[in-house]
Design brief:
With 268 residues, the chain is an alpha+beta fold. It is 47% helix and 19% strand. It has a 4-stranded antiparallel β-sheet. Strands 2-7-4-5 form a 4-stranded antiparallel β-sheet. The chain starts with a helix and ends with a helix.
Amino acid sequence: MAYKWERWERGSREEGPDLYGENAPPSWARLPGARCRAVEHLSKLEGLQEFEVFEGLGEDFFQALAISAAVLEIAAGTALYREGEPSGAVYFMREGRVKIYRSSGGPKNRDQILGVFGDGAILGLASALEGQPQSHGATALTDCVLYGVFRDDLLEIMERFPAGAVRLSRVLAARSRELEDLVGDLVFHSAPQRVARMLLDLAAEEGRVTRRGVVFSPSLSRQEMAEATGISREALSRTLSRLASEGILELDSKSITILKPAELRART
C-alpha cells in the first residue's frame, strides 16, 4: 500500500495522473495531507470494527461511521461532558476508562457514580437520541481515545442502516438494566455488600491473577469508590479495613489484592 501511495504522489508531482491511465489515483489522493487522512480513516475503520456490539454488520455501515467519526484523545481527569450540557455528540470508547455520574448540586455537592466504562463502551447515546441536555457527567479516569460522532450524523446513519440502529438500541437497553441493578443495590443491599460487589467488578475489569490472589490498581480513587457505593469515604475505609483484618483483602497505597475471591463473593 505504501508503495502505491509513493507512486501516486510522485506521479501527480512529476508526470501527472495520465501516466497511469485508468489506474490513476482519485483526485483527493493528490491533495496535500491525503495520505495522512487515508491512514487515519483506515485506523478509525479498524477501531470501530472491534466494537463487539457491531459484530457482523456490513462494511458500508463501518465506512459511514468512520467517515463521520472524529478521533478524540483526552487525559485522565478531563471532563468529556458535564451534566446539563447540550448533547450534540455520541462517543465510542476505543481505549481507556471513564466514569459517569450524577451530582446532587448545592453547597454540599455529592456525586453518585452510575458506572465505570472501558473499551467498547458507547457514551452519551440516550441524551443525544432524545435531543435533551446531558443527564449525567462523564470524566476520564485514565488517558482515553474515543471516536466522537455528531448527533445528526449518527441519526442519518441509523436511518440508512436499520441493523446498526437495532444494535444501538441494545446498548440503551443494557444501560437501563445496569441502572435498575444499581438502584436495587442501593435500596436492598447493605454498604458492605455493595463494597464487596464493587471490588469484584473492578477486579474483573482491571485485575490480574497471581499466586496470592487477584491484584488490581483501581482506576477509582477512594472517594470515587465511596461515591460508587453510595457511602461516605469514612464508611468505605472502615469496610476495607475490616475485610483486610479478616484476611480477605490486602491493601497498600496503590493496589488491592483479593486474597479470597470466593469469600468476598459470598459477602455480596
